[in-house]
Amino acid sequence: MACTQYAYVKSFERDDRLLPNTWLVVRLDGQAFHQFSKAHQFAKPNDAAALDLMNACARSILQSYQDIVLAYGESDEMSFLLPPHAQIFRRREAKLVSTIASQFAAQYTFLWPQYMPNTTLQSPPVFDARAVVYPTVQNVRDYFAWRQADCHINNLYNTTFWTMVLDPKHPERTTREVEAILKDTNAAGKNEILFTQYDINYAHLPAMFRKGSTLFRTKTAVTETSRTTGEPVVRQRDVIQTTYDDLIGDAFWDAHPAILTVQAPRAAKLAKNGSDGQGMVHTKRAVIAHHAPDDQEELLQPDTS
Amino acid sequence: MACTQYAYVKSFERDDRLLPNTWLVVRLDGQAFHQFSKAHQFAKPNDAAALDLMNACARSILQSYQDIVLAYGESDEMSFLLPPHAQIFRRREAKLVSTIASQFAAQYTFLWPQYMPNTTLQSPPVFDARAVVYPTVQNVRDYFAWRQADCHINNLYNTTFWTMVLDPKHPERTTREVEAILKDTNAAGKNEILFTQYDINYAHLPAMFRKGSTLFRTKTAVTETSRTTGEPVVRQRDVIQTTYDDLIGDAFWDAHPAILTVQAPRAAKLAKNGSDGQGMVHTKRAVIAHHAPDDQEELLQPDTS
Amino acid sequence: MACTQYAYVKSFERDDRLLPNTWLVVRLDGQAFHQFSKAHQFAKPNDAAALDLMNACARSILQSYQDIVLAYGESDEMSFLLPPHAQIFRRREAKLVSTIASQFAAQYTFLWPQYMPNTTLQSPPVFDARAVVYPTVQNVRDYFAWRQADCHINNLYNTTFWTMVLDPKHPERTTREVEAILKDTNAAGKNEILFTQYDINYAHLPAMFRKGSTLFRTKTAVTETSRTTGEPVVRQRDVIQTTYDDLIGDAFWDAHPAILTVQAPRAAKLAKNGSDGQGMVHTKRAVIAHHAPDDQEELLQPDTS
Amino acid sequence: MACTQYAYVKSFERDDRLLPNTWLVVRLDGQAFHQFSKAHQFAKPNDAAALDLMNACARSILQSYQDIVLAYGESDEMSFLLPPHAQIFRRREAKLVSTIASQFAAQYTFLWPQYMPNTTLQSPPVFDARAVVYPTVQNVRDYFAWRQADCHINNLYNTTFWTMVLDPKHPERTTREVEAILKDTNAAGKNEILFTQYDINYAHLPAMFRKGSTLFRTKTAVTETSRTTGEPVVRQRDVIQTTYDDLIGDAFWDAHPAILTVQAPRAAKLAKNGSDGQGMVHTKRAVIAHHAPDDQEELLQPDTS
Questions:
Q1: Cβ atoms of residues C184 and C38 within 8 Å
Q2: What is the assigned CATH class of domain A20-148?
Q3: CA-to-CA distance for A26 and A65, rounded, in angstroms?
Q4: CA torsion through residues C171, C177, C179, C180, sign
């Protein structure tokens, strides 16, 4: 083959599989979205349609990859969670981040006319992505708490900022002046400004803006038509839900325990003794045939020496 | 800040900067494009409009990133070359592959109606990407030779295959039968079949199909209107060219020496003595202020001991 | 400084810190120890003094690094376990493996005369080392089960092999013949040969040979002389124990629960409010009780929207 | 096999092969050598015997590994250079750094009595090691210039410092006072102090102290006894030389061009047609003359389209 003498260049590729038996988070972030949102006249501080479009793209990713169990989005970023047993793309990092970023950006472009019917897309958006490995459920919980706290802080700031900038009573006020006013306020101070000066109760603003969006699968009763009888039947199906819940406390996670439950990989389900009831994953174990473990039995016998 | 107690999760991110002073290749590959091309009824064995669309996406990448000096595409894949002095995204691997894959797929979706006016895009395409590090010019040359040899082999096979499958004289012939016939032929054998049975001189088929597409910048004389005088003036500008040249021999590279020339990084241009005339890159050196190298001078004096 | 213009070469060093909040195993392996043991006439199939020397080297490593909680050795290999909170060498991989391999080999050379008084060391031994990252306690348990099962299999084979090779009733028997006989036997078969032909009950052989050696710290009552009163006092001290216990079942781990207990990192204990003003650090914040700062409280309030 | 169910833990090991076709530097550094040198009463500012011992250890490494072409040492550190074609340990990083650090420290312990006959080794030394990848010859040259400049700066400082501290005319002078005096001197100032106050011409001090030590192989005429005739014959053999040359200028490298010459890997020399039937391997195919296989010839034919 003509390729043979050049094929050695393939040996420069690195094996970039992420550590087995760990949680993976893939976070997408819009590039130059300040400019993008300005060019397409997004509403300030939040454009509900643009956020809905982000969520629709996330939904398409969840639909494509069963291995992704949750998405959390705020502003122009979206995080995807994969459990320790996920084997998607053999956990290769470059493949994972490039595929998800690629599909997300293409879907954003594809779905734009549906969510932004009155605005022409001038140029397609670009998202970068990174993968981060987390060993424990607590790390994962803290990750989403980190992103949601970030959402809260940014949104409280932006809401106060834009309310003051767009204040019709102060048409002369510059963005720089508002920045100066807000620089030394804490959360309580911003709530106070909104409430006393603008009669806005921050806690009553849409949860999507304050909490960000969370997408995940739930078993839901769905009425379908039986193929055999033609009668309507109710079946339990995985349905992707979008909520704007608090992710920092326990309530959300307690209500949806399946999200943080680690399962044995599919192959393991077939193996008789592949389950260990300890919430851990038999990453490779599961796929190995258990040939007559006679030596093993012996090792487990009481030691009589 | 509310984020503080969770921000530790950021410490799990890995520094994934690619080795300084090396050539980088980012290769994109379409996912499930067999299915995608079938669903959108691409012409067989080559769809010129679909290849033009690929090239248009590559062009948008070259336009966005001055650090990319060449793109080479065949079928549903596209490779981008970055020189040792490229500092794009601080050479972070995940950022690099996700951004390029994202922009490419979004552009593909965005430009589809322009290149495929008679076919509705059913769902957007997905591309994965990987980055490979090459230390030498010879490795880079061999990389592109590898991809072009791959293009040649696949295209010769596909051209022969589809010519035989679509042969109106043999409407009964199955794809499996054609595969069986071609299994043991070499390149000469396939050329022979095309020439004697179908009167096709393979070498006369479009170069885009046989050689793939190469995009790169050339200094080109461009007539512009002078801002000061309003008169037409001829200026040398970087223009992105698309060719279908042979990349295995020396001719292309000799004709465009700038592509494989390593430049000192921008910062180095400012430093007086930052250039060494040896075709190497002062990756960090360039950015360090040269404080009075008095100790150094001494070291370089003849040793009198 | 004379170094300045060259110091850029330091930027080619890679950040090789291992994933935070994971178990680390460093496994050392003797190089060419078949030859080394032959040159120094080690007893076959096991040389107790040579194994004691290995254990003495492991003990010196445990004494040097508080972050290492367990060592397990068999034949010419030794594994060290570090818990998720270990910050030794900032978890840099090259530093970790090179330091431990270096100290181990140097100690082996240094302690040789004490353990092998009648044999001159001809040339010092060499050990390589690798670091492996394990996310869960189950993975760690399985790691040590893997090594101990390996010890068992090798030792049962070697014991049978050397007993047959050195059998005075069959002086003509070659090692090749013995290999051929043993090739198709399982564990029961080898036990049977030892018992019926040589009157050896394998289970009664020294546990160090059959199980390998385990070193770890235990709180032990130690009688010391009080500095103030000069009287003997009994104090709880960390003492390094060497045992030859089974590591596959639960008994050992249940008896020594401290080994697999994850602690908060030292830095966190010192910091009053968990903040360090330096960025990352709190690798294991997850296991620390969270004092809620002000923005946080707000987030945790019931959502009234 | 008993191991089977646990062997999955091996899948957590990472492929850590360093980039093919690049220069590798492995740098060893003594741990806590300030303390070690004090405990063993090393002469100040330089202990010639201790440096000779370092060089003897480096020599043992060069003798063991043909793939190492140069060692450079100063103080308690030693750097080893491996060329792009080096395949030692399949270029696995952990194996490389741990093996070299291990052998070096064990040799140091082993050879101690020979180099330090009057001092008892109290505890063995420890060295850590790191591997750094350099793509170009210029980077390699700059690396050794960096280390030698470091040697020069440190040695000039230490020589001046200890000369002043040990000055019998100023027995009352503390190390702190000398530090204060030297803080603001440059190289010329330190030379001046040595020359005017102590009549020491720094350039006349031993080159080993000022330049560090360089070890490498040279083809040297060696007189041997012919095995066939029993007569003395002169043969060209690789002999390891130790020099204290300047590595910053060109003279050393021009005089020993073999050190920085890249060779085709051994495997390639053996293979007739460059094919090995095993997949990757031909890391350095690039530097081998290409025999054109049949498809290839066709590609190289003039394009007639």
A1: no
A2: alpha beta
A3: 13
A4: negative
Structure tokens at C86: 């270990």
Contact B127, B105 (CB under 8 A): yes
List alpha helices for A65-198, DSSP H: 93-115, 137-165, 175-182, 187-192, 198
DSSP string, D63-103: HH-TT--EEEEETTEEEEEE-TT--GGGGBHHHHHHHHHHH
ipTM surpasses cut 0.90: no
Which neighbouring-strand residues pair with C222? C235
Structure tokens at A76: 């122009």
pLDDT at C263: 82
Tokens standing for C101?
């391999």
Identify the pLDDT of residue D265: 56
pLDDT digits over D192-221, tens only? 999 999 999 999 999 999 999 999 999 889
Nearest-CB residue to D106 (from C8, C124, C150) = C124
Q: B97–A102: do the CB atoms touch at under 8 Å?
A: no
Q: Does domain D17-211 have CATH number 3.30.70.3000?
A: yes
CB C122 within 8 A of CB C39: yes
pLDDT band at C287 (very low <50, low <70, confident <90, very high): very low
Binned at pLDDT 50, 70 and 90, residue B23 comes out as: very high
Show the tokens assigned to B231: 């008169």
User: Can you say how many angstroms the Cα of residue C51 is from the centroid of all Cα atoms in its chain?
Assistant: 14
Strand, coil or helix: C289 = coil
- Boundaries of every domain in chain A: 20-148, 265-291
Contact of C57 with C79, CB cutoff 8 Å? no
Whether residue A303 has pLDDT greater than 70: no
From A9, A110, A128, residue closest to B143, measured CB to CB? A9
Q: What DSSP character marks residue B5?
A: T
Task: Tell me which residues of chain A have a C-beta less than 8 Å from any C-beta of chain C.
Answer: 19, 21-22, 84, 133, 135-136, 138-139, 141-142, 148-149, 152-153, 186-188, 203-207, 210-211, 246, 248-249, 276, 278, 280-281, 285, 294-296, 298-300, 303-305
Q: Alpha-carbon distance C20 to C285, whole Å?
A: 11
What are the residues facing D241 on neighbouring strands? D216
- Give D175 to chain C, closest Cα distance, Å: 23
Q: Give tens-digit pLDDT for B155-169.
A: 999 999 999 999 999
Taking only the tens place, the pLDDT of each residue in B210-223 is 999 999 999 889 89
Q: Are D151 and D74 in contact (CB under 8 A)?
A: yes
C279 is written with which tokens? Answer: 């960025």
For residue D45, say if its preceding peptide bond is cis, omega within 30 degrees of 0. yes
The residue whose two tokens read 């690396």 is: D143
At residue B25, does pLDDT exceed 80?
yes
Place of tokens 């005017």: D196
B32 annotated as belonging to a binding site for a ligand: yes
Å between D305 CA and nearest CA of chain B: 5
Helix (H) or strand (E) holding A224: strand A213-225
**CA C196 centroid distance within chain:** 36
Pair of tokens at residue A244: 């704007």
Q: How confident is the model at residue B4 (pLDDT cuts 50, 70, 90)?
A: confident
Name the β-bridge partners of C216: C70, C241
- Whether B64 and A61 have beta carbons less than 8 Å apart is answered as no
Give the pTM: 0.88
Residue whose tokens read 């020359």: D195
Task: Provide CB contacts within 8 A for D22, sequence distance 6+.
Answer: B19, B22, B135, D84, D133, D134, D135
In this prediction, residue C265 carries a pLDDT of 55
Count of other CB atoms within 10 angstroms of residue A9: 26
Q: Is residue B286 pLDDT above 70, yes or no? A: no
Is the CATH number 3.40.47.10 carried by domain C17-149? no
